[in-house]
From TrEMBL:
It comes from Paenibacillus zeirhizosphaerae. Residues 58-324 form the GP-PDE domain. InterPro entries: GP_PDE_dom, PLC-like_Pdiesterase_TIM-brl. This is Glycerophosphodiester phosphodiesterase family protein. The lineage of its organism: Bacteria, Bacillati, Bacillota, Bacilli, Bacillales. PROSITE patterns: GP_PDE. It holds the Pfam family GDPD.
Length: 325
C-alpha cells in the first residue's frame, strides 16, 4: 500500500511539474512588449464595403454596398494608393488569368456582378478588359441608382501594372482559382522580379495552385487551407514545449479571433515564435467561417489583446490606421 501511495505521489508530482512547465513556457507574463504597432493589412485596398448578412459564395456584393463614403473601387491602383496613404502596411488583391496569359487584378470568379460584360477574365484579353466598366454593377439602394456606373472604364489593372506602380510596397496576392497551372504560371511571373520585390510579396489561395507555386519558388511566403492545417495541427500537439514544426516555417497564417486564444502562447509568445520562424500571423474577425471578415472599427479592435503586435485584417483601413497612428 505504501508503495502505491509513493508511486501516486511521484506521478502527481511529475504531472504538477509538467503542468507548471506548460503554464510558464506558454505564459505571456514574462514576454517583453515588442513596442511595435500591429501590421495592418488592407483587404482589396480601400474599397466599398457591404453587409455580410446571409452572404454566400454566389452573392453579388456589388448590389449590397453601403452608401459610398469615398470614390474607390476594390482592386484598383487608386484604391491601393489610398490604402497605403491611409496607413496600410500590406494591401491584398486578387488575380485571374486572361485570354492572353496575363494576370488581371479583379475579385470575382465571373464578370457579370460588377461589370457591364459577362463571362470570366479568361474570355478576354487584358486589352479588352481595359474597356470594361468595373463600376457598372454597384448600387446601395437596390438598383435605384448606380453611383459608379461609367466611372470604372479602364480601371482593371494587370498584375504587371500594380507591381510596376508600387515597386517598394508589400502585397498579399490571392489566387482565386484551384488550378495548379495558374500557380505555376504565377511562379514563372514572380520569379522574374527582383529578390527585393519577391520578399515584399506573399501569395495565398487554393491548395493546388499554392502547392504548385511553392514547389517552383520554395522561398516565397505562401498560405492555403492545407498549409494552415499542416502548421497548426502539429503546433497544437507539441507547441506547448516551444518546439516549432517545420511546416510552420516561411509561411503565413490567418487566424480567426475566436480560435486564436486556444493556441499555445497566444498572443505575443505565439506571434514571436512564428516571427522567429519567418512566418507572418494575421488575425481575422470571427470564427473562420468567412475569412473576409475584418476588424473594421475602433470598437472591433477592443476585442484584441492590448499587447498584440501581429497582423490585422481590415476592410476599413481608413478607420483602423488612425487608431495606431
Amino acid at each position: 500500500m505504501n508503495r502505491k501511495k509513493k508511486y501516486r505521489r511521484k506521478v502527481a508530482a511529475v504531472l504538477a511539474i509538467l503542468i507548471l512547465f506548460i503554464a510558464v513556457n506558454n505564459s505571456n507574463l514574462f514576454v517583453q512588449p515588442s513596442g511595435e504597432a500591429p501590421l495592418l493589412l488592407a483587404h482589396r485596398g480601400l474599397a466599398q464595403t457591404f453587409t455580410m448578412d446571409n452572404i454566400t459564395n454566389d452573392t453579388c456584393t456589388a448590389e449590397r454596398i453601403y452608401p459610398p463614403e469615398y470614390p474607390y473601387l476594390e482592386n484598383t491602383i487608386s484604391s491601393m494608393k489610398a490604402a497605403f496613404k491611409a496607413g496600410a502596411d500590406i494591401v491584398e488583391f486578387d488575380v485571374h488569368l486572361t485570354k492572353d496569359g496575363q494576370f488581371a487584378v479583379f475579385h470575382d470568379w465571373t464578370l457579370g456582378c460588377r461589370t457591364n460584360v459577362n463571362g470570366t477574365t479568361k474570355d478576354y484579353t487584358m486589352a479588352e478588359l481595359k474597356k470594361v466598366d468595373i463600376g457598372y454593377g454597384y448600387t446601395a439602394d437596390q438598383g435605384q441608382t448606380y453611383p459608379f456606373r461609367g466611372k470604372g472604364v479602364g480601371m482593371m489593372p494587370s498584375l504587371t501594372e500594380v507591381l510596376d506602380h508600387f515597386p517598394n510596397s508589400s502585397f498579399l496576392i490571392n489566387v482565386k482559382s484551384s488550378d495548379s497551372e495558374e500557380g505555376r504560371l504565377l511562379a514563372s511571373f514572380l520569379s522574374r522580379l527582383t529578390k527585393k520585390q519577391q520578399s515584399q510579396l506573399a501569395v495565398y489561395g487554393g491548395d493546388e495552385p499554392i502547392d504548385a507555386l511553392k514547389k517552383e519558388m520554395p522561398d516565397m511566403r505562401v498560405m492555403s487551407k492545407a498549409s494552415i492545417k499542416q502548421c497548426l495541427l502539429p503546433y497544437v500537439a507539441v507547441g506547448w514545449t516551444g518546439y516549432m514544426p517545420n511546416s510552420c516555417k516561411d509561411s503565413q497564417l490567418h487566424i480567426p479571433e475566436k480560435i486564436a486564444p486556444w493556441l499555445w502562447g497566444w498572443p505575443q509568445k505565439f506571434v514571436n515564435r512564428m516571427k522567429n520562424a519567418d512566418t507572418r500571423v494575421i488575425v481575422v474577425a470571427g470564427n473562420g467561417s468567412e475569412f473576409s471578415s475584418g476588424f473594421d472599427s475602433a470598437e472591433d479592435l477592443k476585442r484584441l489583446p492590448s499587447d498584440y503586435s501581429g497582423g490585422i485584417w481590415t476592410n476599413r483601413i481608413d478607420r483602423i490606421a488612425p487608431v495606431y497612428q
